Amino acid sequence: MAAVPRLGGVSVAPVGGRGTATPSVGDGPQAVLFDMDGTLVETEEYWGEAMFGLAASLGGRMSPEARAATVGTSMRRAMEVLHADLGVVRTETQLQADAGWIEDRVAELMAGSGIPWRPGARELLAAVRDAGTATALVTTTPRRLAALVLASIAADLGADPFHVTVCGDEVPARKPDPAPYLQAAASLGVDPAGCVVVEDSLVGVTAGLAAGMAVLGVPALQTLPPAPGLTLRETLAGIGLADLAEVLVAR
Ligand SMILES: [Mg+2]
User: Mean pLDDT, to the nearest integer, of 177-187?
Assistant: First the structure.
């Protein structure tokens, strides 16, 4: 009878080590930082529907190109793109009112239609949590709306899986500025070089790379051009901790 083969040479080093040594596959990421809209949850359609609705109320139609250009951006930037696309001039007060209208509409759509996961996102987030790896949500969306998504995620997973959440109204500058990701890493007490960012938009990928982090890009509504430090996948379905470790060393 043949001997039971041993798992010789297989490294099973725990994921999530907080050491300061150069990251390797065996160490895994110190932290995984997730974007929200379009990455974890299927909410970009709601933002799109809200913006098309606002455009209609202003007497115009937003072009698909302009809509695509707003993905992942701040509310102010999105309103500027929309107004320019329609050829309308809005005062600062009107811009703020338009932004508020969009937020109300997105909240309404979330409440009425639910907050579906992106493919594979639930499984990956649960795997990161179960491994004890530090994790953060880093979104440009204001806290008021992010709280709705966080509540939905927490209800589905049984608890809030994030150690830190950073929202668009809590940072000195928004993506593509690295500030939101650096703020999350500082709050977690981890080295940016040991972090993996998961993003769907160009501004988000740009922010993660500018923060000195490795980025897993899962494009949804935008094409993501190749960049040093960026690993591209079509979907999060089937992505696990070992893949995140590879993202870290692939840059
Ligand atoms: Mg996004």
Answer: 98
